[in-house]
Amino acid sequence: MRVLVIGATGTIGRAVSQALAGEHEVLRASRSGPLRVDLADTATLDALFEEAGPLDAVVCCAASGPLAPLLDLAAFPDTAFTTALHGKLLGQIALTRRAAAHLPDAGSVTLTSGTFPAPLPDGSLGALVNSGLEGFVANAAHELPRGVRLNAVSPGWVEETLRGLGDETTAGTPVAEVAQAYVDAVEGVMTGRVLRV
Predict the structure, then answer these.
(1) H helical segments located in the chain
(2) 156-188 pLDDT, tens per residue?
(3) 17: CATH
(4) What is the pTM of this model?
(5) Residues sharing a CB contact under 8 Å with residue 72, sequence separation 6 or more, in sequence order
(6) Cα–Cα distance, 109 to 103 (Å, whole number)
């Protein structure tokens, strides 16, 4: 298969690209790579699909969001809250709409949400985005045409990310295990599922 991985320069994106590359042709896209894209800019999504050519699957690992103080309107005003929704939530929805039109019958789209093991200080925006994405996947999977499949991977803390932050890593999942969930979504037959790792 020809698989487009968006966010291929991040910790998860690199691991997913490597895990898929053994069996598939992987095209790597990011804000700074040879294939450039920014989920918050739909024009770059349109250009990406034009440049990428025929694809069998699209995987989005470019899905980060800021911690946002819910009640501090001076530090994080409503406009900043709304802007933060454009990348991870609305950007992945825009990606799905374009990918579904671009992919062949039975193609695959895999998005990224996220899991907090417990309520996280300043994590309300992330919880909103992740819940919204998971609800979108569950419903939109049944609206996509021609058997195009839609799933999401919902990683918690990644061991390598925690190590890079200088934090304790025992609560993290190894990135290779996270990457395998994306491979399962691409190569499997499931749709409308959220894979938690």
Answers:
(1) 11-21, 42-52, 78-85, 91-102, 124-140, 159-164, 175-187
(2) 999 999 999 999 999 899 999 999 999 999 999
(3) 3.40.50.720
(4) 0.96
(5) none
(6) 9
3-state secondary structure of 153: strand
In order of 26, 55, 73, the CA distances from 3 in angstroms are 5, 6, 41
Distances from the Cα of 72 to the Cαs of 8, 118, 119, 159, in angstroms?
33, 22, 18, 31
**110 and 186 in contact (C-beta within 8 Å)?**
yes
If we measure between CA atoms, which residue out of 49, 63, 152, 54 comes closest to residue 97? 49
Most distant CA atoms of the chain, gap in Å: 50
- Residue count (the chain): 197
Range of the domain at 24: 2-196
Number of domains in the chain: 1
3-state helix, strand, coil in the chain (%, to 5): 40, 15, 40
| Residue 97 CA, distance from chain mean position | 14
Query: In angstroms, how far is the first alpha carbon of the chain from the final one?
Result: 24
